[in-house]
Amino acid sequence: MVDSILDRVSIREFDMNRDTEVVGKLERNCEIGTKKGVSIFSNMMGDPFSRIRFYPLHVMLVAELLESGELVGVVRGCIKTVGTATGGTLVKMGCILGLRVSPAYRRMGIGLKLVNLVEEWMLKHGAQYTFLATEKNNNASMNLFTVKCNYMNLSSLIIFIQPTGLPRKNISKDIKIDKLRIDQAISLYKSKLRGKDLYPLDIDMILKEKLSLGTWISYFKDESRMNLNNRENNEDFSDTPSSWVIFSIWNTCKTYELQIKKSQPLKFFHTTLCNAREKIFPCLRMPVSDSLSRPFGFLFLYGLHGEGENLGELMESIWSFTSQLGESMKDCKVVITELGLTDPLTKHVPQNSSISRIDDIWYVKNIIGHIHGKDESLKGPAGNVFVDPRDF
Ligand SMILES: CC(C)(COP(=O)(O)OP(=O)(O)OC[C@H]1O[C@@H](n2cnc3c(N)ncnc32)[C@H](O)[C@@H]1OP(=O)(O)O)[C@@H](O)C(=O)NCCC(=O)NCCS
């Protein structure tokens, strides 16, 4: 009887000395999205841990062919604690990131085996749930997780993408955008995040990370009560204006690189769109031959939270502010944000033809359910979530 490929594959932990170059090659040869003859390949810029090193508990597993030592698959995982709206329960969550199987070895069960083993690692390290995000159109990934691994739909989100450098509206003279000190940002977020369906508990770590460029508040100027600098008590936000939006910006450059390969005619474009997830390129309304032919990165707008009646103009000011910041940065060509479908700010994202939208789905599985009975902390739908910039 012929051996199945799975009998000839061993799954083991990534070895920095042995595997860095080979995994880099695997990532670069493993397309994660296509559009009209253009394939997208990722490049971790020599650091295969770039997407998980923010988390103290992380792992990377590789699938190796026993006969040749060739690496044909990779998966990354990390563990974090998140807060949920269901009674403020805290949940230890394992996140699956960067799953790839070499095209020549797909549909042989290697992806499933990698997922099973990364879940095992997560369970061993105390995770109650496992989680992953994937583009709605990624059938292979959706089937793998829902049909084969029993993941459930937790949340539907929209990724908004806008190239910088296009004609844009000036920020209205009636609007003021103030930068918060990190301690102010931490207290404001801590007091507001509890209203979200899902949020990271270590917001202070995120805001203190060097990739986080800062946190700002946008509000109408005539509401001069927003006097942040003289604020004595960082916990007291009773004098916030009637309408305001808080936002933070994450600079993803220099950590993750994508490469675009055009098949007709064969031509290679090298880009440094840094830390872009597998889903953003297929929807970019940018001429590949022009903007993507040169290295570029993007800014990720995160931690958006707004209160009040007049959020539309404030959201416009934030897009303009972030685009302006991106334009001042070498290599930045895109601004991206991601919001849950029922996040109150989603309907206020400026509607213009240069903004592309991608449907994203978050899947979750209770991996200890069979031990502890029915745990419904994360049973979805979670429509108003904090999108962690470290996972994007
Ligand atoms: C998604 C991916 C990792 C799957 O790896 P794989 O080794 O081919 O997966 P498996 O062979 O273990 O397949 C398990 C199941 O997933 C589903 N599946 C896998 N590929 C599929 C495809 N192309 N179309 C539809 N379903 C598919 C099937 O249900 C399959 O079971 P079956 O073969 O018994 O029908 C692989 O296609 C890949 O690397 N894609 C590019 C990167 C990517 O999209 N990663 C996921 C990001 S979250």
Q: Describe it for me?
A:
The protein is of the alpha+beta class. The protein folds into two domains: 183 residues, Gcn5-related N-acetyltransferase (GNAT) (Aminopeptidase), CATH 3.40.630; 184 residues, Aminopeptidase, CATH 3.40.630. 20% of the residues lie in helices and 34% in strands. It is built from seven helices and 17 strands. Strands 1, 4, 5, 6, 7, 8, 9, 10, 11, 12, 15, 16 and 17 form a 13-stranded mixed β-sheet that branches. Helix 6 links the parallel strand 15 and strand 16. The chain is globular. Coenzyme A binds next to strand 6, helix 2, strand 7 and helix 3. This is Acyl-CoA N-acyltransferases superfamily protein. It comes from Quillaja saponaria (Soap bark tree). GO terms for molecular function: acyltransferase activity, transferring groups other than amino-acyl groups.
